[in-house]
Design brief:
The protein is 20% helix and 27% strand. By secondary structure, the chain is α+β, with helices and mostly antiparallel strands. Bound molecules: FE2/S2 (inorganic) cluster.
Amino acid sequence: MDSASPDSTSTESPAQPTGETAAFEPPRRGFFVKFLAAFLGMIVGAVPFVTGLLFFLDPLIRRGKATQDGAMNNPDGVEKDEDGFVNLKVAVDALPADGTPQAVKVHDDKVDAWNKFLNVEVGTVWLLRNEQGGVTAFNTVCPHLGCSVDYRQSNDDFYCPCHQSAFDLKGSKLNQIPPRSMDQLKVKVKDGKNVWLKFQNFRGATTEKIPT
Ligand code: FES
């Protein structure tokens, strides 16, 4: 029998192209559409996440910028140099020439991860002109138990009324009550006249000068 006979009964004849095959979607195009949809979905999902992250990190970003700008650009903050000395805005000439101590309040900017408090009072120091024509500074906190040390004009010394610690004007202790002498602080005199100070507090009731 002729294999090409039109009355063949075979059921496995190949599919014939029809007009409906024009709607068939090629595999590559389908993949692209899915990829695009996933990509757009990812972007839409990321927007609120990134916005929230920026909001959360905003204090840190602003803090970093403030550090880069420096206090000089912040009119409400203290003026501080790269070594941590703050400008006390006290002229050497304004201190008594005879070495009488002068109490001066110290301000600084308090910064943590989320807050910045400008020009906060952090302590008080005794400033006095020294024999070299410079300035000596002592923290007014008593090294005994933390009361405030006064200048006692009648004795021309420093005196703590809480337990009667006494110190001379060089800060050396004059009796056995305090465990150490007064805490002297580092001072710079800039431009020959302005007093800058590195303020620190120290632990009380110890013979060692340990910063807190
Ligand atoms: S706290 Fe100053 S003498 Fe005790």
